Structure formats: structure tokens, C-alpha cells
């Protein structure tokens, strides 16, 4: 399939109805198939020979629990929606009203444009314009590619304004666990530090995982451990990637990996605990922790004309019991 021009993003008054997530673009390579949606430019599904690798949602359903969404220009939460940038105070809309936070950025419900579609890849884009609480025009672009290893996602943000902009990125995929009870799910998180948060999901302070229940560096069954936890001080493999693994009897072993652009990740088990939709564990690659617009921790500053890029992906692991690496290359 050659590159195609985007379909118009305007509604058709002749249409009887519209899907809650707008247009959907499906790509495939070998046994892998993925679907990306117009609303939020996020990942709705990823399958291997028809079996789900991510806990997504149906073609006629609205995205719930952030499944597969993109989180820009910040991931996670900003306390009371307030921050100061270059001496100017800003007030963002509170999108997590019960906890009085501005949560997960400004583009997860935006209408993204199809830039390019190939049989095994799709690129979507969105121009984020200034709005209440946000002063900076950014061009955002995300490419989803299927290769022999699984899914590879490359996100980019370019400052097309005239002043420096704060920036953070996160993604919110859920790795599928099928019918396996949460207690029995095996999880490996290659991080030496976790960030304690309060009841609003806001930072209290960093703590070592050493000797704690959150030490998942060697991997183990979760047992009674539940997670809604940011991690950092990630341990990278020789290729510069960190790899978080989730394994079950029903789905097998899955790896979410990320490159040097991502010093943080968050792991979230809440949808399984509450029985919300398809069971999965969110493994969220993040460039920065919650409250980064105020703390400055790992925050990216994009000068006029500057661009940030980062790459992450999802891969199944070989069937042999000794394998601990995804099928890459």
C-alpha cells in the first residue's frame, strides 16, 4: 500500500453514526496486527495470530482507563493544575476532578490526523495550539510500526512557537494478562527507585526498592503487591533499552521496552483490582514523573525549532523457559 492522503477530519452530516474513537487504521505484518485510532492517536489493539497482546477495547467502544492513549505535553498529574513557567503562572483545566489534578496532558481526546499509512506502519499527527494554561504551539507526530519483534512506537514533538516550552511524554498501554489472577502474574521492573505518592497520585518522595515489596528487579509473582507506582533509576541492557516484563500462563511473556528518552516508567494494576474492562497491567514509559512542571524533575525544555523524539515498543518473548529477551531483530 502506498502513502495516502489523510481522510478529512470533519464530520459528515450524511453519516448515520460515528465510532467513539473516530477513524481507525489497522496495520499488519506476519502474525502481528495493530489498530490506531483518530481520537487521541492512540493504540486500540495489538494482537499476535489473533490473540491480544494488549488489553485494549472494541472498535465501537470509547477508550476507558487511558488504554493505549498518548500523554502530552505532560504525563501523569499536575497538582491543582497550577505551574509557573518562565515567571508566568498558569492554570490548567482540572481533568481529574475528584483529586483536583490536571491529568495526562492535552491531547488524549484530540482529533489526530492521518499522515501516512503503509501495510505495516501508520503515522498520525496533531498540532497542539495555545489554550488556557498552555502557551506553546507544538507539532506532535507518532509512528507505529510492526516488525519481526512486534510493535515499535516512535513519538516526536517539535516546538513551532517563539519561546521555550516545557514538555513531557508518556504512553498508557496495558499488557494483557488474560484470565490469570493478578496474584499469579509475574512482573519484572528493572528500576532501583520508586516514587512514593499520596492519595492524589502526587509525589511525596523517592525511595530505594532495596529490601522493599516494590523490588521487582529480578521478577516475581505479584502476590499481594498492587501497583500505581512511578519507578526510575532504570537498569538498561547493553543496547541502551530498559525492559519491563509481564508474564502469565494465559498470554505468555510480554516485554515493554524503551530507549534513553525514558528515564521513568509507571506500573498500574488498578483496572484488574477493580474489574474494569479487559484485564491488563499498564506499563507506561514516561520522560518525567508526576508534578514535573513544578519540580523540574526530568523535564524537557524545547527551544523554538527544537524537537524531542523517543521510541518504545512491545514484544512477545521466545517460548523457551530460559528466554528473557524479546524477539528483536
What is the secondary structure topology, with strand pairs?
Blueprint lengths: L23 E6 L2 E6 L5 E6 L2 E2 L17 E2 L5 E3 L2 E4 L2 E4 L9 E3 L9 E6 L2 E8 L9 E10 L2 E10 L5 E3 L2 E2 L2 E3 L9 E3 L2 E7 L5 E6 L11 E2 L6 E7 L7 E7 L3 E7 L5 E5 L1 H5 L5 E7 L5 H4 L4 E3 L4 E10 L13
Antiparallel strand pairs: 1-2, 2-3, 3-4, 5-15, 6-9, 7-8, 10-11, 11-12, 12-13, 13-27, 14-26, 16-25, 17-20, 17-22, 18-19, 18-21, 21-24, 22-23, 23-27, 24-25
Describe this structure in words.
The chain is mainly beta. The protein is built from two helices and 27 strands. The strands form seven sheets. It has a nine-stranded antiparallel sheet, with no helix packed on it. A six-stranded antiparallel sheet has the order 16-25-24-21-18-19. Strands 1-2-3-4 form a four-stranded antiparallel sheet, with no helix packed on it. A hairpin with a 5-residue loop joins β18 (191-197) and β19 (203-208). The chain is globular. Residues 320-329 have low confidence and may be disordered.
Quick rundown:
The chain has two helices and 27 strands.
Parts with pLDDT < 50 across at least 5 consecutive residues? 320-329
* Large-scale geometry: globular
Count of helical stretches: 2
Task: Kindly report the spatial arrangement of strands forming the biggest sheet.
Answer: 10-11-12-13-27-23-22-17-20
Rg over CA atoms, rounded to whole Å, is 19 Å
Name the average pLDDT.
93
Secondary-structure element pattern, one letter each = EEEEEEEEEEEEEEEEEEEEEEEEHEHEE
Biggest beta-sheet profile: 9 strands, antiparallel
**Oligomerization category of the chains in this entry:** single chain
N-to-C terminal Cα separation, in Å? 23 Å
The SS-based structural class is mainly beta
- Please report which band the strand proportion falls in: under 5%, 5-15%, 15-25%, 25-35%, 35-45% or over 45%: 35-45%
Give the helix proportion (percent range): under 10%
Work out the number of β strands. 27
Amino acid at each position: 500500500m502506498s502513502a495516502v492522503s489523510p481522510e478529512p477530519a470533519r464530520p459528515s452530516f450524511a453519516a448515520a453514526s460515528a465510532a467513539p474513537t473516530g477513524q481507525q487504521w489497522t496495520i499488519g505484518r506476519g502474525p502481528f496486527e495493530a489498530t490506531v485510532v483518530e481520537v487521541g492517536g492512540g493504540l486500540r489493539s495489538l494482537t499476535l495470530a489473533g490473540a491480544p497482546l494488549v488489553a485494549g477495547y472494541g472498535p465501537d467502544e470509547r477508550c476507558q482507563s487511558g488504554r493505549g492513549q498518548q500523554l502530552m505535553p505532560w504525563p501523569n498529574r499536575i497538582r491543582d493544575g497550577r505551574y509557573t513557567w518562565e515567571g508566568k503562572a498558569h492554570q490548567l483545566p482540572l481533568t481529574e476532578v475528584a483529586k483536583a489534578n490536571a491529568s495526562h496532558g492535552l491531547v488524549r481526546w484530540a482529533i489526530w490526523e492521518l499522515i501516512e499509512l503503509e501495510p505495516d506502519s501508520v503515522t498520525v499527527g496533531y498540532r497542539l495550539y495555545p489554550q488556557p494554561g498552555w502557551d506553546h504551539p507544538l507539532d506532535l507526530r507518532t509512528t507505529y510500526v510492526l516488525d519481526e519483534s512486534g510493535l515499535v512506537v516512535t513519538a516526536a514533538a517539535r516546538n513551532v512557537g517563539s519561546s521555550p516550552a516545557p514538555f513531557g511524554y508518556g504512553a498508557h498501554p496495558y499488557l494483557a494478562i488474560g484470565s490469570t489472577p493478578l496474584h499469579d502474574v509475574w512482573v519484572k521492573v528493572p528500576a532501583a527507585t520508586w516514587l512514593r505518592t499520596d492519595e492524589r497520585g502526587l509525589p511525596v518522595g523517592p525511595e530505594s526498592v532495596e529490601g522493599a515489596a516494590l523490588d521487582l528487579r529480578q521478577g516475581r509473582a505479584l502476590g499481594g503487591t498492587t501497583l500505581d507506582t512511578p519507578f526510575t533509576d532504570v537498569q538498561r541492557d547493553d543496547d541502551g533499552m530498559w525492559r519491563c516484563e509481564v508474564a502469565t500462563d494465559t498470554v505468555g511473556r510480554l516485554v515493554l521496552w524503551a530507549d534513553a528518552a525514558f528515564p521513568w516508567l509507571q506500573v498500574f494494576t488498578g483496572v484488574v483490582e477493580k474489574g474494569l474492562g479487559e484485564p491488563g497491567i499498564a506499563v507506561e514509559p514516561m520522560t518525567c514523573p508526576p508534578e514535573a512542571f513544578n519540580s523540574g524533575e526530568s523535564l524537557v525544555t524545547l527551544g523554538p525549532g527544537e524537537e524531542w523524539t523517543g521510541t518504545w515498543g512491545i514484544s512477545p518473548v521466545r517460548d523457551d523457559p530460559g528466554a528473557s529477551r524479546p524477539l528483536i531483530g
